[in-house]
């Protein structure tokens, strides 16, 4: 696949140094690391391999990837590897796509409380699915779900939500039967939304009283419990967006969905159009408009583009893909084996995963010649460039 004419890395290389100097008091260590990784990705700074084509004698250099989970170039290949590892977990049943979204006021609060709010978003969404599914009035079964955190809107604004893949059924409470969803219907979204709203606000109040939340800027007034309670009051009655799509057509569609969502970053290189004195222009979707007219372009200053991109840097060690219920990591192998036994299937027939959209990583062989397309061999190593740091400066009296 051809390299996009403009990449996020080009923007950070051109404007990142100035941005760091101007906004150094507002950048945390995680954001600085992401900027550095993206700027160095597939450049001489990270080293690489010297390649030779035995067919046409063409020589080339392939520089190493940064492998940062926020890098648009690296996540496509990471998604492909993840998909190949998860193929064995697919069941021969229908799968549903669900979405749990935070209201706008909580989205703003979540930015300065990412660990707490994102964790609640995951756990309450999973609890909501499992609780409603376990109710005999709905499904009466123990279900599983794979949830993926997304924090961005199409225009790079902060818009946290979890996308979920849910098998269309679950194990009976005694584990002796597989109970399938009826009529291509998972669970009622009105009931899911109501429980999700109540449980999230309850857990948010609990986190507040345990002093787990921090308040800055316009939110400093929320440190007063009375003000905080009044501020949250409208959220008890407004509609919380919960969505459940029709089931996928089969395992191939599930894998295609996963490849698009599991390792997606705030913006793909393919959406970038230009960078000039006016700023950075990129494609986005205006979801308030229907039809083809929803596809638009937006131009942001380079500073604003980088600020919005860095809004979505996750805290170190925070897992943005999580598995719950019968798909939880601690017991999913046993549960899946039991489900297959009940469904009378020994193995799962899964289509080969399609290449991830936007991937710059070629299929086998690992390196191919740009001149003739033949497989290239590694004949040398390019050592990465290490920056020699100066000794710390003595600030005391001589």
Notes on the protein architecture:
The chain is built from ten helices and 13 strands. With 398 residues, it is an alpha+beta fold. It has two domains: 85 residues, no CATH class; 208 residues, no CATH class. The strands form four sheets. Strands 8-3-5-4-12 form a five-stranded antiparallel beta sheet, sandwiched between helices. It has a three-stranded antiparallel beta sheet with strand order 2-1-13, with no helix packed on it. Helix 1 packs antiparallel against helix 2 and helix 5 crosses helix 6. The longest helix has 21 residues.
Features:
five-stranded antiparallel sheet, alpha+beta, three-stranded antiparallel sheet, 398 residues
Q: Number of domains in the coordinates?
A: 2
Order of strands, widest sheet: 8-3-5-4-12
The fraction of residues in strands falls at 15-25%
**Tell me, what's the shape?**
globular
Q: Report the strand count.
A: 13
Order of helices and strands: HHEEHEHHEEEEHHEHEEEHEHE
- What share of residues is helical? 25-40%
Question: Structural class per helix/strand content?
Answer: alpha+beta
Distance between the termini: 60 Å
Sheet bearing the most strands, described?
5 strands, antiparallel
Low-confidence stretches: 348-353, 356-363
Spatial extent as radius of gyration: 24 Å
Mean pLDDT: 87
Number of helices: 10
């Amino acid at each position: 696949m051809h390299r996009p004419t403009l990449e996020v890395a080009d923007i950070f290389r051109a404007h990142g140094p100035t941005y760091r100097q101007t906004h150094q008091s507002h950048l945390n260590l995680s954001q600085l690391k992401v900027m550095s990784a993206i700027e160095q990705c597939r450049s001489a700074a990270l080293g690489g391999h010297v390649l030779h084509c035995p067919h046409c004698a063409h020589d080339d250099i392939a520089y190493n990837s940064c492998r940062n989970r926020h890098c648009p170039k690296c996540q496509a290949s990471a998604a492909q590897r993840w998909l190949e590892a998860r193929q064995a977990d697919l069941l021969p049943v229908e799968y549903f796509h669900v979405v749990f979204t935070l209201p706008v006021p909580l989205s703003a609060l979540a930015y300065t409380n990412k660990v707490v709010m994102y964790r609640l978003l995951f756990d309450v969404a999973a609890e909501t699915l499992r609780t409603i599914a376990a109710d005999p009035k709905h499904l009466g079964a123990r279900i599983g779900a794979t949830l993926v955190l997304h924090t961005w809107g199409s225009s790079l604004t902060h818009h946290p939500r979890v996308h979920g893949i849910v098998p269309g059924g679950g194990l009976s409470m005694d584990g002796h039967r597989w109970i399938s969803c009826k009529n291509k219907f998972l669970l009622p979204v009105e009931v899911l939304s109501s429980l999700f709203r109540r449980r999230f606000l309850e857990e948010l109040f609990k986190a507040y009283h345990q002093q787990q939340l921090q308040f800055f800027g316009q939110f400093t007034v929320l440190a007063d419990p009375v003000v905080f309670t009044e501020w949250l009051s409208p959220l008890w009655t407004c509609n919380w967006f919960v969505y459940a799509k029709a089931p996928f057509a089969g395992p191939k569609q599930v894998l295609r969905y996963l490849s698009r969502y599991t390792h997606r970053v705030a913006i793909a290189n393919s959406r970038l159009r230009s960078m000039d004195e006016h700023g950075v222009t990129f494609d986005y979707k205006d979801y308030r408009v229907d039809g083809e007219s929803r596809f638009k372009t937006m131009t942001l200053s380079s500073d604003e583009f980088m600020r919005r991109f860095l809004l979505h840097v996750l805290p170190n060690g925070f897992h943005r893909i999580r598995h719950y219920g019968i798909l939880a990591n601690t017991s999913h192998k046993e549960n899946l084996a039991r489900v297959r036994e009940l469904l009378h299937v020994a193995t799962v027939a899964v289509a080969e995963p399609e290449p991830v959209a936007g991937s710059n990583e070629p299929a086998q062989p690992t390196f191919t010649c740009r001149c003739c397309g033949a497989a290239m061999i590694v004949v040398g190593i390019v050592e990465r460039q290490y920056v020699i740091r100066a000794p710390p400066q003595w600030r005391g009296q001589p």
